[in-house]
């Protein structure tokens, strides 16, 4: 199982990035779960989980296979550059957009339109600008805070 995510270019920092990303993700996710639960919108956390799990999960294989246009990002604890593809990042955008539509019954019409025009863009930018292998906490944080703002203001 370890070999499935231990990319040669990530060595010797694979485990460091894995553990720090897990810790940071839970430090972001647990307060979001508490907030969403206390405001009776807990099912909406699935939008972010789908964006991260499906969208970001598909980003790498689709980007590797079809990604002709690429951009670079750094990783934590190193100055080495890593590449990502625009088509891979587009997977995050499309998946987030679809996930919002799946959970549209939890939004009023103004909230839904605002969410469709902001959250996919913000989550995609979080994925694009996050350090290599460290996008989960930023995806959860950006998605959660943007949803909280939409529900507080609208």
Describe the structure.
- With 154 residues, the protein is mainly alpha-helical.
- 68% of the residues lie in helices and 6% in strands.
Secondary structure topology:
Elements: H1 14-38, H2 45-66, E1 70-74, E2 81-85, H3 86-102, H4 109-129, H5 135-153
Antiparallel strand pairs: 1-2
What key phrases describe this protein's structure?
154 residues; globular; mainly alpha; two-stranded antiparallel ribbon
| Helical segment count | 5
Give the strand order, joined by hyphens, for the main sheet.
1-2
Low-confidence stretches: none
Rg over CA atoms, rounded to whole Å, is 16 Å
Shape: globular
Number of strands: 2
Fraction in beta strands: 5-15%
- Compute the average pLDDT: 93
H and E order: HHEEHHH
Helix content: 55-70%
Alpha-beta classification: mainly alpha
The end-to-end span amounts to 44 Å
Largest sheet at a glance?
Answer: 2 strands, antiparallel
Quick structural summary:
By secondary structure, the protein is mainly alpha-helical. It has helices spanning 14-38, 45-66, 86-102, 109-129, 135-153, and strands spanning 70-74, 81-85.
């Amino acid at each position: 199982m370890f070999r499935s995510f231990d990319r040669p270019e990530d060595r010797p920092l694979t485990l460091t990035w894995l553990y720090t990303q897990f810790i940071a993700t839970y430090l972001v996710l647990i307060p979001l779960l508490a907030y969403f639960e206390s405001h009776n919108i807990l099912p909406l956390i699935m939008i972010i989980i789908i964006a991260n799990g499906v969208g970001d999960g598909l980003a790498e294989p689709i980007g590797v296979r079809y990604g002709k246009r690429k951009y670079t990002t750094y990783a934590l604890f190193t100055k080495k550059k890593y590449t990502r593809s625009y088509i891979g990042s587009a997977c995050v955008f499309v998946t987030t957009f679809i996930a919002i539509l799946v959970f549209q019954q939890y939004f009023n019409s103004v909230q839904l339109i605002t969410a469709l025009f902001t959250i996919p863009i913000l989550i995609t930018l979080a994925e694009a600008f996050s350090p290599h292998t460290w996008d989960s906490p930023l995806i959860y944080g950006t998605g959660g805070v943007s949803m909280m703002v939409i529900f507080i203001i609208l």
